[in-house]
Amino acid sequence: MRDDSGQTFEADIHAGATTIGVSGGGVSDEGRNALFIVHVDDVDEHFELVRAASGRELDAPVDQPYGPRTFMITDPWGYQWSFWQGEATPPR
């Protein structure tokens, strides 16, 4: 998706069978404001892998009211990674 000036502000990257959604970019006072959404087959299994590899306490996956089951982690550089199982449903 592009804004009125033609700058891309949201995109999908396809890596094999995985889709990674990229939204935002740049740096704000709160840190980096890019969000990466990684679609996974089993978000609970992936949560355990990320939790073990990071060695950090993380909020467990939750079912979102807009559709997917998700969890999020911020990497050491300030980027947010959200892992999704399922698709978002647009509001009616």
Summarize the structure.
This protein has 92 residues and is mainly beta. Helix content is 13%, strand content 43%.
Write structural notes for this entry:
With 92 residues, the protein is mainly beta. The chain has a single domain, classed as Signal recognition particle alu RNA binding heterodimer, srp9/1 (2-Layer Sandwich). Helix content is 13%, strand content 43%. It has 1 helix and 6 strands; from the N terminus they run E-E-E-H-E-E-E. The protein has one helix spanning 43-54; strands at 10-15, 18-28, 31-39, 62-63, 69-74, 80-85. Strands 1-2-3-6-5-4 form a 6-stranded mixed β-sheet. The mean pLDDT is 83. Residues 1-86 form the VOC domain. It comes from Streptomyces galilaeus. Pfam families: Glyoxalase (PF00903). This is VOC family protein. InterPro entries: Glyas_Bleomycin-R_OHBP_Dase, Glyas_Fos-R_dOase_dom, VOC_core.
